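Hi V.,

Quick status before I head out on leave. The structure for the redesign project is tokenized and pasted below; the design run finished overnight.
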């Protein structure tokens, strides 16, 4: 894959920093045992690494209690636990049309079963959710507002702090899906009035797949939904109620935690703002090039402010999947195509009927030359569709 131009970083960042690969291999060879289950040296050191990673991530996200930083398979896994752990029969939920299926599907299942009622707030023409629309959607029986920090389709960063303040004032639990922003933008759960923040490791935190988690503000009502081994109080019939065990069971993905730790260390060393600024400079370069191409439509890409570096577009008369295939086969460029697991966003954009969009996702290791190659490739594909040659 050495010649691949990888622009699918909103799905999974690739490659990872060299230190991530090195630390995962070294740590797993020397400490690949069950953390917290025994008192021999390697197990104690493995648990020390896990606890240190909890502290690092809790601090990185503005949390106050490392034990409330809990690990899971990924953001989808944590979001399922949040939805099922917070909501009860008869509750009302507010969410948005920008959500990923990691939020929508758990809600759909409970809604279809008659357990909850859900209000879906639309976004405006620029791709943002109006906090006043969220305020107006709240009811006396609203228990949860759950939404993403940034859209994985159009890259718009939502006014989380303002919406968090509205929820805090109303006494409603506020959960944020930070899959696209943890590691990409500064986050402070206390300052933003976020009760539950969910993250994944394999995107902007530059860790491996199979690891994610959540930070749950102390005092936030959430039930345990999984039960099993924890390595503590094994004689008890019931799963421990305290954190982090309330949200974890079974042996942790120690290799994933190790890789996540190394990824977070890289992000901290480089600086979130520095990484994001460079990526958005490339985003502007791509946006400026693509918007000059006849028959190319960009979605919610007028300005780089309050954005993450994803850029959705279509070429008139071509299916997104066909454009993606041509970029892959003819130019060795990897982009995501389709509905991006966010069907309501595409429905509101009007792209659902044409099966979604092409979505380049820019990462920390992309270059200006790669962006220029993408723009040139799209120009040639669009010209060929119109029956014109491009020199």
């Amino acid at each position: 894959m050495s010649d691949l131009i990888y622009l699918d970083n909103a799905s999974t960042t690739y490659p990872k920093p060299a230190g991530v690969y090195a630390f995962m291999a070294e740590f797993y060879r020397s400490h690949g045992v069950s953390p917290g289950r025994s008192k021999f040296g390697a197990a104690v050191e493995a648990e020390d690494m896990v606890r240190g990673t909890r502290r690092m991530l809790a601090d990185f996200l503005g949390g106050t209690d490392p034990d409330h930083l809990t690990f899971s398979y990924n953001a989808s896994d944590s979001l399922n636990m949040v939805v099922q752990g917070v909501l009860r029969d008869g509750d009302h939920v507010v969410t948005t049309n920008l959500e990923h299926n990691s939020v929508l599907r758990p809600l759909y299942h409970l809604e279809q079963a008659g357990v909850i009622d859900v209000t879906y707030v639309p976004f405006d023409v620029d791709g943002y959710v109006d906090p006043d629309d969220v305020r107006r959607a709240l009811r006396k029986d609203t228990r949860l507002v759950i939404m993403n920090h940034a859209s994985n389709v159009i890259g718009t960063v939502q006014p989380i702090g303002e919406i968090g303040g509205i929820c805090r004032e109303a006494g409603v639990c506020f959960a944020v899906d930070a899959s696209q922003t943890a590691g990409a933008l500064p986050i402070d759960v206390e300052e933003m009035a976020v009760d539950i923040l969910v993250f994944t490791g394999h995107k902007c935190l530059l860790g491996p797949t199979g690891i994610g988690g959540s930070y749950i503000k102390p005092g936030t009502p959430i039930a345990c939904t999984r039960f099993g081994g924890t390595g503590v109080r094994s004689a008890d019939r019931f799963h421990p109620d305290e954190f982090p065990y309330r949200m974890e069971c079974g042996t942790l993905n120690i290799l994933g935690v190790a890789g996540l730790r190394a990824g977070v260390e890289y992000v901290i060393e480089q600086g979130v703002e520095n990484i994001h600024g460079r990526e958005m400079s490339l985003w502007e370069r791509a946006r400026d090039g693509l918007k000059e191409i006849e028959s190319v439509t960009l979605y919610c890409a007028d300005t780089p402010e309050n954005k993450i570096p994803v850029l959705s577009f279509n070429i008139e008369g071509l299916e997104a999947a066909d454009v993606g295939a041509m970029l892959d086969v003819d130019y060795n460029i990897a982009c995501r195509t389709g509905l991006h697991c966010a069907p309501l966003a595409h429905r509101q954009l009007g792209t659902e009927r044409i099966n979604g969009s092409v979505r380049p996702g820019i990462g920390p290791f992309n270059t200006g030359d790669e962006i220029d190659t993408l723009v040139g490739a799209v120009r040639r594909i669009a010209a060929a569709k119109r029956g014109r040659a491009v020199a």
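Above is the designed sequence. The radius of gyration is 22 Å.

G. will cover questions while I'm gone.

Best,
W.
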